[in-house]
From TrEMBL:
InterPro entries in the record: PRTase-like, PRTase_dom, Upp_B, UPRT, UPRTase/APRTase
Classification via PANTHER family: ADENINE PHOSPHORIBOSYLTRANSFERASE, URACIL PHOSPHORIBOSYLTRANSFERASE, CHLOROPLASTIC
Protein name as it appears in the record: Uracil phosphoribosyltransferase
Binding residue positions for 5-phospho-alpha-D-ribose 1-diphosphate: R82, R107, D134, P135, M136, L137, A138, T139, G140, H141, S142, D203
HAMAP family per record: Upp_B
Organism (species): Gluconobacter morbifer G707
Classification via Pfam families: UPRTase (PF14681)
Domain Phosphoribosyltransferase: 9-211
Cross-referenced Gene3D superfamilies: 3.40.50.2020
GO annotation, biological process: UMP salvage; uracil salvage
Keywords associated with the record: Allosteric enzyme, Glycosyltransferase, GTP-binding, Magnesium, Nucleotide-binding, Transferase
Amino acid sequence: MSQALPPIVLDHPLVRHKLTRLRDRNTSTAGFRRLTRELSLLLAYEATRGLSLVPRHIEAPSGPMEGEELDGKKLCFVSILRAGNGLLDGMLDLVPSARVGHIGLRRDHETLEVSEYYFNMPSDVPGRTCIVLDPMLATGHSAAAALTRVKEAGAKSPVFACLLAVPEGIAHMRERHPDVQIVTCSIDSHLDEHGYIVPGLGDAGDRLFGTR
Ligand code: URA
């Protein structure tokens, strides 16, 4: 059996600085959105590291050269509603031509089963690299369900990108999707009894959209 891929953690002073401001409960909604956009651009940089290139001949100002360009179909970002939408702007700043899909999932509080209420993807997913987005990898149930759907749709080498992850969520993903690369800005300590990441940043959706 193949080994699960270890998560990639963005280890960079700018990421640590921005993450500290993001976690701060006194950061405004506007500040939280701006920081999320900046961090998601940096996440996109790392999450796209595995993209393949093909040679491209160009005429540079000082003469012809063999350059490179991305191979295959355009990338697809897949937002897990609603908080995943907060990561889209930064991702699209870096990859403006990417396609975007959305998945809506809800959790039954009694059975803890995840069910889908929305699924909208580009029609030609087979062969496209998909990067699934959710700011928080907490229990990992939504992320795993989203990855299953994206794989069923035919996505190539899917990646999961988040701002924060905890060992519980990483373990769940490694069990269900050992082939999926997780890219995160930090691995936090644990989940509290309400399912919040500790130290975390609170409810990512509420902080992004100014609800509650
Ligand atoms: N979702 C959030 O928004 N925050 C957490 O801490 C855990 C899951």
